[in-house]
Amino acid sequence: MALSAVSIAPDNPSIIRGETIHFIATPVGGTPSAYQWNVDSSNIGGADQSTYDYTPTTVGNHTVKCYALNGSNPVSETETVTVSSWASLVTYLTTMIGHLASIRKATE
């Protein structure tokens, strides 16, 4: 049976800069002869297994792509990783706490 697709998980994750996320590739319709992982359009040297650990060093959206190779017809899937800083998380939580305090005060 010919390899028809590859699925990677997790789907569109969000993490904090410096944390590591573990991706798993699942082939559909066949067994790949090899894998190649790619981040922001650059192949990652040595990332040629069905799993890949990614630790982003910059904030923003990054694309992680996995190619499953089987003959001359590679298949791929791409996920977008949203990377935030601790400062942006603290700002978000502070804002949410402020909203909750306002709601509580309004209901008293």
Give a description of the structure.
The chain has 108 residues and is of the alpha+beta class. It has a single domain, classed as Immunoglobulin-like (Sandwich). The protein is 20% helix and 44% strand. Strands 2-8-7-4-5 form a five-stranded mixed beta sheet. The longest helix is centred in the C-terminal third of the chain and has 22 residues, at 86-107. It is elongated. It starts with a strand and ends with a helix.
Backbone CA Rg = 19 Å
* CATH architecture level-2 label: Sandwich
Overall 3D geometry? elongated
CATH class category: Mainly Beta
Number of domains: 1
- In percent, how helical is the residue content? 10-25%
The major sheet is characterized as:
5 strands, mixed
Distance between the terminal alpha carbons, to the nearest Å? 66 Å
Q: Which oligomeric state applies?
A: single chain
The structure class reads: alpha+beta
Beta fraction of the residues?
A: 35-45%
Number of helices: 1
Name the poorly predicted regions: none
Q: What is the H/E order? A: EEEEEEEEH
So, the CATH homologous superfamily? Answer: Immunoglobulins
CATH fold title: Immunoglobulin-like
How would you write the strand order of the largest sheet? 2-8-7-4-5
Q: How many strand segments? A: 8
**Average predicted confidence as pLDDT:** 89
